[in-house]
Amino acid sequence: MADTDALxxxxxxxxxxxxxxxxxxxxxxxxxxxxxxxDHMIRAMEEIGRRFEQAQAFVPELLMAAAAMKKCLExxxxxxxxxxxxxxxxxVVGTVRGDMHDIGKNLVASMLEGCGFxxxxxxxxxxxxxxxxxxxxxxxxxxxxxxLLTTTMPYMKEIIETLKTEGLRDQVKVMIGGAPVTEExxxxxxxxxxxxxxxxxxTLARSLVRKSA
Length: 213
Description:
The protein is α/β, with parallel strands linked by helices. It has 9 helices and 5 strands.
């Protein structure tokens, strides 16, 4: 039997090449993509996320683990297309118009992708129209909006209103985040949820997908 612990430890330690080798060994041994992802890869990402929340790991370790996870997904993605059970949903993410900050947004995107979501990263300074177009094109389950500036936060509401105008709001959940963003603000603009960090974003995204299922 292929060594599942090797995969777990390689992702946890942010070692892409050993992680890829372990993934390929599991595939060769006949393990299903959904089992590899949910039982071993996501378990490693959840552990690094837990350590991050408890200040036992820091952003570099989180990014290294996410990078290792992405390398593993390069092997599994062709198989995942044949096995929809391995995919948790599609999330369109972006930093809203007027805001060029993307470190936090990219970290969240990496964690979400590492935990089995398909990610469409629109980058920074993204207009409401571009978010709506991406939701249509990719049939997204969730839109993730990020803002670091208090001056750009109000644009999140404009994006939600555009989704309503385009007839998309009922089919997509909206989650928001960023240093100045709060749960109260999320409620005030009609978002479906708010996360304070990357690990919380994964938990929230899973919850929102389950609610819409």
